[in-house]
Each structure stands twice: as C-alpha cells, then as structure tokens.
Amino acid sequence: MPISAPNIFSHNRYWAECYGNAPFLPMSRAEMDELGWDSCDIIIVCGDAYVDHPSFGMAVIGRFLEAQGFRVGIIAQPNWQSTEDFMALGKPNLFWGVSAGNMDSMINRYTADLRMRSDDAYTPDGAGGKRPDRAVIVYSQRCREASPETPIVIGGIEASLRRIAQYDYWSDKVRQSVLVDSGADILLYGNAERAIADVAHEIARGKHVNELSSIRGTAIVRRGIPEGWTEIDSTRIDWPGQIDKLTSPYEYIQKTPDSDNQEGVPVRIVPMPLQAKEKLNPQTTYIRLPSFEKVRADSALYAHASRILHQESNPHNAHVLVQRHGNREVWVNPPPIPLQTDEMDGVFDLSYQRVPHPSYGEANIPAYEMIRFSVNIMRGCFGGCTFCSITEHEGRVIQSRSQESILREIENIRDKTPGFTGTISDLGGPTANMYQLNCKDDKIQASCRRLSCVHPTICKNLITDHSPTTQLYRKARAIPGVKRVAIASGLRYDLAVEDPEYVRELVTHHVGGYLKIAPEHSEDRPLSKMMKPGMGSYHKFEKMFNQFSKEAGKKQYLIPYFIASHPGCEDEDMVELALWLKKRKMRVDQVQNFYPSPMALATAMYHSERNPLKRLSYKDDKIPVPRGIDQRRLQKALLRYHDEKNWPVLRKALRDMNRAELIGDGDNQLIPAATPTMERNPRQQTRKSKQRARRSSR
Question: Which of 15, 404, 449, 555 gives 20 to 30 Å between its CA and that of 641?
C-alpha cells in the first residue's frame, strides 16, 4: 500500500520565527547584526557561490529551514586550508549542514579524461579552484575542527551518491561510504526537505543526533543491529541450489552484545533466495549488502550490491539497507516519501530573491546566467538511464508543481529578475516532458520494483497523456510580457511520440530552430546497457518533428547527443554509429565520453564488467568495457569521423578491425584514404576541410 507522510510545513515553527525572513541568508557577522541575530541555529557550508534561487540546493534548504523558524547562515566556498572561514558566523546552535554544491565536486573539477577543468560554473566569474576534491569530506573535517561538539549533517548530490561503498573513478578503487570518510553524524540523500525538517526539529527539541535512527532518506553509522530485526542476507551471488531446505540453521536467538556490536545481532537471518517465501514484517526487516571489504575485493559483489540498491529505491516498498564497514554498520533508511503538489508549491514559493548574494557585486556566475529565466516544473525521473544519477538522487516518482505555482514564478521573473527581455529560457527539470506523468494506480506503483517505466517498453500502467504540459505551455505563453517560452531540458522522445498533439505544440511554439535530444547511440548492444529506447522511437519522433515544423512554416533541426565508450559498447558499434551519422549527413561537435559517476548502474558495469540489470552469477560472461585512454579516444574520434585530425588514427583502427573497405571517397565509406597531397599540404587540406564544414552547415 502507498505510504503517506505529514506535510513538510506542518511542524510547529521554531521560536526564532519571530525574526522573520532575511533579505538574504547572512554570510557575515555584519549581516547577522543587521538582522538582530546573536547566533545562527544552522550554518550551511557549500561548495557553490550563494545564489538565492530555487535552482540552487543551498538556497532551497536554507529558505526551507528559515520557513520552519530557524536562523540559517551560509558559508559559501570557504577556504578549506584552515578553520578561519568556517568560524566566520560563530558556532551553530543546532548543527552544521554540509554540501559540495549542485554538482559532485570531482565531476565539477575533472573531465571524463581526468583532466582538471580550468573553470567552475558555480563560482563568480567562473574561476576554478574554489572548492576542494571530495568537498563533503574536507568541509566536514574543518567543521569538526571548528566546533567538535556540534553535529554535522551532510547532504546534496555528492553525499547522496556516496551513501554506501562506491566505485571512485578518480582513484580507480572502491571507497567507503562518505558517511564514514567524513566523520559526519548523519547523511541525508535525495531531495531532503522531509528529512531536514525532521532532523532540525528533533535536535531543537533536545534529542541527540545519535537518537535519529529511523528518519526516511537518511543514513547513519551504528555499532550493531537493533533488537527484534530480521535480516535478509544478500551478501552472496551464487547460493546453493537447494537453499530452501536449509532454513532452520539460519534461525537463532539474539546474542548478548559484545564490544564491537553494541546493539546486538538480528533475531533471524533469511537467505536472499527465500525472502519471497517468507512473511516478513517490512518495518523490522533489513537487507544486508556485501560489506565494504567484500565489494572492494570482489567487483562482482560490487555489481550485485549496486543492483540491490537500485531495486530498493521505491519509497513505498524499499527495505532498510545495511552494509558493514569494519566494525561499524552503515544503516540506510528507505527513501523519503515524494512531495505532494502543495508541498512542491510551498518549496518553490519561498522568499527567494532570485539573484546572487550582493557580496559578489557585478561578478558573473555562469550557472546562474544559465537558469535565471528558467522554471523548474517537476522533480524525479522514471527513465532509469544507467549512466545518469538523477534517478538515484531524486527518485523515480514524478513530483510536479501546480500550474498556478509555475505561472506565478514566471510572473515573478518578469517583474523582479534583472535583465528579463520577455523570454523564459526553459520550463523543465530532469526531463521536459514528464510533468504529471505517473502510474495510473497508486497501489501498483507502491508495489513496483521496475528500474525503468519506459524500458524495455513503456509500462502499460504509465500515464503518457501530455495534455497538462501542453496546457501549461499555452498558459505560459499567454502571460502579458512573455514573448517566448523555450524548452531547453532534455526531452524523452519515446514518451513524446505517444502524444502527437504535444509534439505539435512543442515544435510549433517552443523550438527556436534547434531541439536537442539524446538518442545516445544507434546500436542495440550499447542501448540495452544504457536502458535507452531503440532507434525506432527516434525515427518516429524525427518524422513528427519534420512534419510539424513544415506545417508551422519553420526550418528547424534536431541536434542529437551521443555517448562514446559506454560499458557494453564495442569499437564495431561506434563504427556503425559513425556510418549512421554519415549516411544522414550529420556532423556532431558536442560529443562526450562516458563518465563513471558514483552509484550509477553503468559505473557498476564499468568497474565489474558485469551486467547488474539482471541477476548476477560468477558464471556470467563479462561485458566489454572501453577502459584504456586510447580506446576511449578512438570511440570518441569515431563520433567525429568528419574531423580530419582524427583520420590517421581512424585509418589505422579500421584496418586493424578488418574494415579497410570503409576507407575511401565513396558514399558508403567513412573517411578518405591518405594521399600525397594531404601529407605535403596539411594546412591547405585544413582550409579545404573548414570550407566543406561551412558549406555543410549552410
């Protein structure tokens, strides 16, 4: 059955509500003095510049806590080399809130080829180097030094995606849960309004942070298992074939706690293969994952742990997950209950100034410039793409705002945001067209464990009617002062084709010449590992797009995005994709190599060379993984087959693959053969190549 939760705004407000709302959450003692504060109840430390806008997590959590009655201060992008910046606002009365920012700090600082980036979109004037590697760990350590007795609460996407042992691409090893590495007291994962409200009010009532052990959307460290719990043992892959005859030996009586296991041990252990045959109380049953030590030593067990984590992501049927780290247990409570529409409205209607903090002066913050005229209309994604971390962070259940709240925000942009000229740059979110798309039946949704609602086919229980989105677009365009509403968020085209009227509305009114979509590949082998639809959906959408563009009297183009070097993608697959592109006269410039982000299923594939989309066994064949820098560059070069700088390496690779027939000037050939002219006059050849590219773009 679906599980409900109290409204996030139903808590009795903390006594400090008498101070009212701050113009900006203070970043200095002087601002605190102006507000009449002698101290902050909560101080948020973050790796981003402070932009008071609902697209920035620090502002959302800060303003939400303010609405709960707390005095919230901000320490943005502190110098982490000492505790000086961390003491700028004094010690918080209740706790530190620590986040790396809107992006994982490692992804923010390094490219997929492990080169350090020179810029940072979340920093004034895009300056690089304003945050440390593994910012959550470093900031937590400085907070502990500044105030050893004050609880530390970590959250944001970096903490969220590292809540259990995770493969770390940058060090090429499995790391412990960030909760252990940081020394924090509690971790909040996902969109954390419910959890942060519960944590803040419980600590304000005098509870010790160690007592907050059962709040949804949190993870804690324990010494052992509470009394009365049953364990589902999922620490192995290959179980004995007749395990159903061995139930009795797995039942035993609670033992006396020892020094390493202060809370105790489970009353009963049930092997994973038997859980379906048992009637277990979900309120007192947890799943034991392979320990950190085991997943570090055995990549197959790592993939298995990743599979279980993703299967236990539905907040209505997920179990507690437990993973041992040394003599401690990382205890991950089930995901938070998704926000209802009125709760979403309340979060987005908070008193944001919608601009950066005044202390930044005239500095340009690139991430803010990208979103200052955009509106987030929903959260969550049920696509389940294995390379993407949105689902792991925000969940599969779509949480939508009301049309009234969205239209009100557009009016606020029109009236209050500096520089508005009449264009709303985006109405979207994780995806542009999942607004109000949910399961037809709450009971079915509550029992579902599918990793994706649209793969391998669209679930028959999924609502695919886009009419609420279409109506929203029409109402947004009708607001006085709004000249144009663009759609810039990613479009799930396999859903869009289920509603031609939506595609017509989108193409006719909301595409400014180009529409970006992401088929990611053309070949079934890598697409199956990505959990992306086959090219049939793309061709169907392309046909609609061209038809409706013609009817609207517009010349418009699709800009497809593709990924190279994804697990399961072989060089031959990239050759076929390159031929697909050439046949369609496409020359893509924006290409990316697969980036193994923490906790993604594709990252488990990358690390283990196994497929966690199905039940695992040591007998399974391994999947191919483009791993070395040379192979990754080759696959990326095949996407840019038209770039003559890539031709020498592509000629060699094609010969090595016994595909030399693709070298030449024929229509069915991929790259030209080397000629003496090319070798003698490379500059002249470059000029000719650029001239061809200009003609092609026209």
Answer: 555
